[in-house]
Amino acid sequence: MERSLKIALGSFFVSLVVLAIKYAAYWITGSVALLSDALESIINVVSALAVILSVKIASQPPDEEHPYGHHKAEYLSAVLVGSLIVVAALAIMHEAYMGFLHPKPIDAAWTGLAVSSIATIINVAWASLLIRQGRIQRSASLVADGKHLMADVVTSVGVVVGVVLVVLTGITQLDAAIAALVAVHVLWSGWGVLKESASGLLDEAAPPEELARIKEIISLNADDAIEAHALRTRHAGKATFIDFHLVVSAEMSVGQSHDICDKIEDALRKAISGAIVTIHVEPEHKAKHKGIIVV
Fold it and tell me: Residue ranges of the Cation efflux protein transmembrane domain (predicted)?
């Protein structure tokens, strides 16, 4: 089983455990702020399922209907996760409003907070692993899920502070106020995930540092070519699509130009994980006298 899929399955089980712990904290205290924290964890469970599905689809090889592969399935999943985060924010806002209208005292606050803190510790550890491994595996879904969990951690810390203030001050409306602040924070987190996912769906180019590395590799490995230009890149999950024009001497044979292309492709694939390279060979009168200079 692919490592990304194993991590996604682990995320689902972790989210179930965290949900159970957070709901237990709400059940003990009756706090609307702790309820808002538990509501967000329901979204974590659904998000984890979406990530499992997207990672499984994205790992499938190209076929007749999808000759470029299924890499973008992960971006679709990340958009779904972002949308669910926004839904969670609206649900929390509703609970906060009801809490303002009908404030209730918090029961067994310290016990509930201790239980809730266990869930927060689990989330911190798992979110860090998801973000780190998501970037290593170049999985948009895992990174989005990890960022969502990290936002959940911030939410949980805010809820703990709010419940402590309610206990110390006796102002029960603070419970609902903290829940409302949680909703705003969750909404902002959802917007961030949606924005980042949209860039992948819109074929955003490789980041500047990676683009510079690609240009350097082409320059160092295009022996006997004249220049390279019209370089284009785009990310799609784990794949990085690279295409450009390579200008060679008009007297060069097809076999010689093909050998140069093979050398460049091999170097790019070794340096750039998941590189898919397309090179268009052109005769020297097509030179633009700009672009990538061959060393």
Answer: 11-202
